[in-house]
Design goal:
With about 260 residues, this protein is an alpha+beta fold. It has five helices and 14 strands. The chain is about 25% helix and about 25% strand. The strands form four sheets. Strands 5, 7, 8, 9 and 12 form a five-stranded antiparallel β-sheet that branches. α3 packs across α4 and α4 runs antiparallel to α5. It is elongated and about 60 Å long. The two termini are about 40 Å apart. The N terminus is likely disordered.
Length: about 260
Amino acid sequence: SYIILGKFEYGGGVTWLIDDNYTLKTVSGFTVTVTEAGTFQASAIEYGTETIDASTNIVSLTTMKEYLKLVSDTSHDSFLTNWIGIVTGQIEDYSGLYIKQRTLASEIVSGNGRRILPLPKKPIVSLLAVPQVRDDGSDTWADLVTSTNECFLEGGRYGATKIGIYATSEVVFPYGENNVLLNCNAGFATVPQDFVGICIELVAEKFLESRHGNSRLGQTSFSNSAVGSNASTNFYQLFNQRHKAILDKWVALMTPNMARV
């Protein structure tokens, strides 16, 4: 199911969820009437809309609830489901990776005028149809080659980071902006545990920041002094540095070798 997140700045910020028909699903603190897309986007959105397909989420709601010890508590399900989707999107955007495997029926990329095209997001597992191309400003797509046998995928053990056309076809991916369309399977067949751990920890952080958890939005640290000891936790460092290092490792691992472009 698809969920759109809206955040309304009122009394410190209240979050509600609506479905793709703009029907109110959950509200906290006050009542909001949503009538149409334009009204909602103009008056209530603080940072844009997020459309989330739960089938591509890095972790499940069940896994997240087990981590937070909320197995039998359903009052936070909508909040957690939404933030699992948002964090999944943030991880994919930062890393340039499709994490959980899915079918991309119309992935549009930009051609480079060469036979081998590095992919902006990866890995690609298999081609389901031949690549298509279009002229600048045109909405008409045409097959670049006649068969997928004229194409090859190139990359490491996790999947392809480039798509190529064999030299015998004597064609290239024409140079242009958003002019190449791919129909393919993409993502990891088994989600690496690095991404699972990061997603769980970041969603848990959002939970604890919110009124669903400890209401510590904006709080960067916590100190606890006792006789003979002083303990301090910095939330900002826990949220950023270690996760970024792990993601950067995967970015480097999945960056294509540019020698054969």
